[in-house]
Amino acid sequence: MKSNNLYSQVLSNNIKKPLIKSEGPEFNLIECRGDLFVDASQNSSLAHCVSADFRMGKGIASVFKEKFQGVEELLSQKKGVGEVAFLRRNDRYIFYIITKEKYFQKPTRRNFENSLYYLKELCEELGVKVLSAPKIGTGLDKLPPEFVRKTILKVFDGCDLNMTIFYL
């Protein structure tokens, strides 16, 4: 796997530590402790994982549901597993990465990866350059953190995007 300008881990004091630099489109991944809704920059679009039924009753998904509303708007987009629905709020996009059919299910690795490819295409199409997310796939969905990190790096390699993953 080829790596571009990559930030892998951020120290607990939030000092960014670049690991690799290269020319061309750059994907930067930063992981840092913080509150997504407080610490993400105002120009950052947001993303998180959901089920196709958009129940969003637990975890950070319930906070997205309360904060951004729009469940009917999301359902009207008729997106399924492996796709991404989105809302436009305050000059930024809120992406709903659909990794499973029903809220009580767990995503497969393939569905998670396919959803990220869809997200990458959407970000490129919509001109999104800054994206923030919680630790996607690893909370209630229980995907292994190392798999999630490697998949993000693989999918977004060469994409002109700065992604920050927040964890508490």
TrEMBL record:
GO terms for biological process: peptidyl-glutamate ADP-deribosylation. Gene3D superfamilies: Leucine Aminopeptidase, subunit E, domain 1 (3.40.220.10). It is an enzyme of class 3 (hydrolase). Residues 16-168 form the Macro domain. InterPro entries: ADP-ribose_metab_enzymes, Macro_dom, Macro_dom-like. It catalyses: ADP-alpha-D-ribose 1''-phosphate + H2O = ADP-D-ribose + phosphate. SUPFAM superfamilies: Macro domain-like (SSF52949). Belongs to the POA1 family. This is ADP-ribose 1''-phosphate phosphatase. It comes from Diversispora eburnea.
